[in-house]
Amino acid sequence: MSNINLKFGRNITKDAGAFRLLELPPELCKLVEESTNAKLTIRGQPDEDAVLCTPERTYSLRSVVLSNSVLVVTPTSNPQDVVIRRQIHEILEPVPCLPRLQKLSTLLRGREYDEGHEEDEEIGEDEEGRPVSFKKPRFTYDDARGILQASDFELEKCLKDRRILVLNGCLRPIAPSHLTTVLEILLNALVSLSLSHENAPVEDLAASLQEEHDINRDITRQVMQWFGEVADNLWKMDVEATVREVGIGILRAHRHDSILEPQFLQKWKVAVGDTFESKVDIKLLSGNYLSRMSELGDAPVFELLYFPSSTLPSDPAARFADLFLTRPRWKAEEITPFLADIVVDAKDRDRLLLKHARAITNSEGVWYTTRVQMQ
Amino acid sequence: MIIPINIATSSAGPTLPPQLAKFGTDELVLIELQGSLDVEGEISGQLVGKLDLETDPKKPTLLIGHHLLEGKLQNLAKPLAVMHKNSRESSKPGGEMVQEVDSSSSTEWDIVAVVRRKMVFTKRPMPMVGRVPVTTDTIR
Questions:
Q1: Mean per-residue pLDDT of chain B
Q2: Which of A214, A219, B44, B107 is buried most deeply by CB count within 10 Å?
Q3: Rounded to an integer, what distance in angstroms lies between the CA atom of residue B72 and that of residue A199?
Q4: Is the same domain home to A148 and A218?
């Protein structure tokens, strides 16, 4: 038997013949091998570092330069010849990362949906049935998908988490106060219509809110999906999430003027009604408030200030700077809720704490102070 | 911008000789060289060297010019997906090919193979004296 001839291929230097090597961690390998339609995508703007997205996750791509060269060799129609299609000097290594969704808030600025002025931007049609143009250019779900470096699942989760409505394909963040209103009305409607929060007919509720409070059915439906599960047109309310959101709604008024904890809890209980009164718990609001011992009054009582982690910078260094400006020292259990949304897991959090904060242990437990010298 | 990655690992095209397919897949093999092939001039279609997988299937050799390289099979710690760029040049109804202005919009990548091993030539080349070189003009 004779030797095999190794030849250069035809398009070896042309862009059209480009090859890349992508390292496959086990979970990606499984995805690629098990399905011919794995729906992998590379996402990003030309000026950004590309990311790799599976339907569920996002990976940053690291280029690992090889000192050796790797030849990509494929067969030809002649069994004696094989051709080099490309000489490669780097491998792409996917590293799991957080979806890059920070841009979304900038992109959605000024597109908030609130009651009262919804009519002037309401999707309407003119006499001939054409959609009436908007004041602002539309920013659609597909626009967001094309711009943001996140998997579809993560993007949808983000829309849900950030309470962004999709109205006629356009992304519209719901005004927080309006969301609280809708939820409170929903809770009332459950009672007045004598419906169970375990399985409430979606359409009945949406119709009721439309008739009695002029709330768009589309909005009611989406709010129900955010705060529970909808299956077979029945809504199973996520009690904890709903109660939490109503609590945040009340707390929101106390960004600068603190409120005493007992007084706050009382207001909160009234707002959620008798059925869910027992679910009210200050722990539900972790990551949204600061508490300190009140200096007023005789009895030791905490007072609360609205301090949502969602408004803090997403860059770790900037976030720690903000946190330590707010308070010079933090207890470990107090600071962790304010880091939850910028870390992948507890290990990642500890790494950040190690890097940006100094730990001090005393009889009260672990305290964190800044590493940056304030001058 | 979203660039899709398609999985196109099974094709009905030609397959590699079985003895070579052992070092990769039926359709693709990765050959790693210490250093790189540095060639001047038009290289398209030119002969690089001769692979000998018969003498000792465990020790493939590659003869480039006067130099003999001895290689081995190496399993990869993590599998590698080999991606091939698939830029679709859109053709207009008239049949003429149009280079897209925004070339990115039509770019797709295909995963053409998932490989778990490679053929590695790590040793220094041995000079072959007194033998007729297989190539004369392509390798300098």
A1: 79
A2: A219
A3: 65
A4: yes
Q: How far is CA B51 from CA A192, A320, B27, B57, B62, in A?
A: 83, 59, 17, 11, 5
Rounded Cα distance, A240 and A151, in Å:
27
Helix, strand or coil for residue B91? strand
- Nearest CB partner across the interface for A19, out of B15, B84, B104: B84
Residue A354 one-letter amino acid = L
A79 and A110 in one domain? no
Question: Is A33 part of the contact surface with chain B (CB cutoff 8 Å)?
Answer: yes
What is the pLDDT, as a whole number, of residue A124?
52
State mean pLDDT over A294-312.
84
- pLDDT score at B96: 41
Whether residue A169 is found in the same domain as residue A58: no
- Whether A30 and A57 share a structural domain: yes
Segment A160-172 mean pLDDT: 90
Count CB atoms within 10 A of the CB of residue A278: 11
For residue B65, what is the domain's CATH number? 2.60.40.4370
Boundaries of domain holding A302: 255-311
Count: domains in chain A: 4
A79 touches chain B (CB under 8 A): yes
Beta carbons of A42 and B49 less than 8 Å apart: no
ipTM: 0.82
One domain, residues A67 and A108: no
Any B CB within 8 A of A31 CB:
no
Residue B85: list chain A partners with CB under 8 A.
15-20
| A125 is a domain residue | no
